Amino acid sequence: xxxxxxxxxxxxxxxxxxxxxxxDVNGCYYILxxxxxxxxxxxxxxxxxxxxEEIGTEIEIGELVFIREYIGKNHEHAAFDAQLHQIExxxxxxLVNPTQDFKGGTNPDEGQISVDxxxxxxxxxxxxxxxxxxxxxxxxxxxxxxxxxxxDIN
Length: 154
Known about the structure:
Elements: E1 3-13, E2 16-24, E3 27-31, E4 34-36, H1 43-54, E5 59-71, H2 78-81, E6 85-95, E7 112-119, E8 128-129, H3 133-141, E9 149-152
Parallel strand pairs: 1-6, 3-8, 5-9
Antiparallel strand pairs: 1-2, 1-4, 2-3, 2-7, 5-6
């Protein structure tokens, strides 16, 4: 089993989180923009490319806020993720052009429905993966500090 690196963007503006909307058998859910690192890319290059592909806009990358491991066999999606071991590096980011409408990127994720702004006040009731970062994103937006390494969470 290989370990895969991934870069993710935490984009919070006007008390809203930018997220990718997808759908599965249980209904709609959200993920942070970003994705898998390709050979020869650094994490920032990965995140720039993935945001262009998924949300169709350039971002400015800020500080690293969280590192999450995801070992698929340990979580509720083990039926299809058992072989996945991914380390995600989550960065504070901002949109280069915050007034831009999101009409889709150059290569959206499989199953991607839209790009949505989720009000932070609604985030705890939202199915955002990883679920454990919802509270941490809210706390970070309020200026609270948290541990960077989150471990094997979903």
